[in-house]
Prior knowledge:
The complex is a heterodimer.
Chain A: H1 3-14, H2 20-32, H3 37-52, H4 61-74, H5 86-130, E1 137-138, H6 142-149, E2 168-177, E3 180-189, E4 192-200, E5 210-214, E6 217-224, E7 227-233, H7 237-248
Antiparallel strand pairs in A: 1-2, 2-3, 3-4, 4-7, 5-6, 6-7
Helix pairs in contact in A: 1-2, 1-3
Chain B: H1 4-14, H2 18-29, H3 32-49, H4 58-76, H5 99-106, H6 109-118, H7 121-132, H8 137-144, H9 148-167
Amino acid sequence: MNCNDTRKLLNAYVDGELDSAESLSVETHLRQCASCQPEVEKLRSLASAIKSGALQFKAPRHLKRNVQAAIRAANPGVKSPLPGWQWASALATVVLIVALTWVVTTQRTRSSEEAQLVDEILSSHVRSMMANHITDVSSSDSHTVKPWFGGKLDYSPPAKDLTEQGFRLIGGRLDYIDSRPVAALVYQRSQHFINLFVWPLKSNVIAPESQISRQGYNMIHWTESGMTYWLVSELNATELKECARLLRE
Amino acid sequence: MFDQNELTAFNEAVLPHLDAAYNLARWLSRNDQDAEDVVQEASLRAFKYWKGFSGRDCRSWLLAIVRNTYYSWLRKQSVQPELTEDGETYDIDDGAPSPEAVMLQNADREMLKSALEDLRVEFREAIVLREMEGLSYKEISDISGVPIGTVMSRLARARKQLQIYLTNPSARNSL
C-alpha cells in the first residue's frame, strides 16, 4: 500500500471502520512511512479536541415541556376534566405515572450511558492494539510507571506489578474516556495484552464486580475506594478474572 | 386518535434522546430558536410515525427525523441549503510536523465552535453524528441517506478543513 492508498483509508482507520485486513495494511504502511504517521496523530488530536471541547448543546429545560404540549395540542382527544370524586384517584394515577416514567427514563438513560461507556472502553482497547502505540511509558517497574502519570492526571492510579503471578506490567498510557483523561495500565500475559483503565468515580455509586463479553473481548468492571476500574483483553474470561482478583488483592 | 398509553411509551422511548436531537438541530441551524423549532416539529412528526416504528435504534431514528425536518424547514424558509456535490479529493501534503497535532489538541472551545460552524452543512452533520453522537458510518449513512463511501469522504474533507482552519488562521477566510 502506498501513501495515496493509505491516505484514502486513514479516516476510516482512525474511526475503526476498516476490516482487519485493511487495518493491517494501513498499519504496515504507517510503520514505514514518516509522512503518514503525523496524519494519524492529527486526526486523533482533532477527534479528541472535539470530544473534549464540550461542544454538545443540551436541550433547554423548557423544550421537553414544549414538545409534550405540542404533541397534545396536535393530537386532540385528551381525556376531558373529570367530575368531583374522580380527581383524587386521577391525581394519584398521574403521580404514579410521573414517578414511573422518571424511574424508567433515568434507568434507560443510565443503561444507555453504560452501554456507551462499554463501547468507548472497548474501542480504546482495540485502538491501542491497532496503532502499535500501546504504551506511552514502557516499564515493568511500578515506581517508573506510577510517577509518570503525575502531572498528567489529577489522581494517582495504582500500578501494581504482577510479573510473578504471570501478568507482567509493561507500561502505562494516557487515554481519553468518558469525557476525561484516564490512566491505562498495560499488562501482558503470554501473547495477550490487557488494558486496565482507571479513573475516579463521578459519584459514590458503588458497582459490584461485573463481567461482559463483547466481540470476542472480555471486560471486567469494578469500583473500589472511589475509583472505577475496567479490565479489557482478548484473554479468556477465566484468566482475566484471575488478573482482576490479583489486582484487587 | 390520541392514546395515553401510546404517548407514555413514546415519551419513555424518545424523550431521553432530546439532547441528541437538540444538539444535531443546533449544529445544523447554528441558532438556538431555530433548533428548538426544528426539534419540536421533529417530535410531532416522530409521534405521528411512532405507530409504524418497529423499534430499532430509537436515537438514530429520531436523529434522521430531526435531520429531515431541518432540511424541509430550510426549504420552507426559502433559503438555499448549502448542499453541494461530493467529490473525492484528497490533498496530500508533505509530512506535516507534529506541532500541528499539538495545536489541534489544544484548540480552544470557541475556535473549535467557529471552525465547525464554518463547515458546509453536510460536513457539519457528519462530524456531529460521528464525533459527538459516536455513530458508525453505517448509522450515519442511514440517517443522512447517502452511501457509506460518501460518509467517509465527507468526514475526510470536513476534518481536513477543520485542520486547516485550526492550524492556519490566515487560511480561514479562503475556506
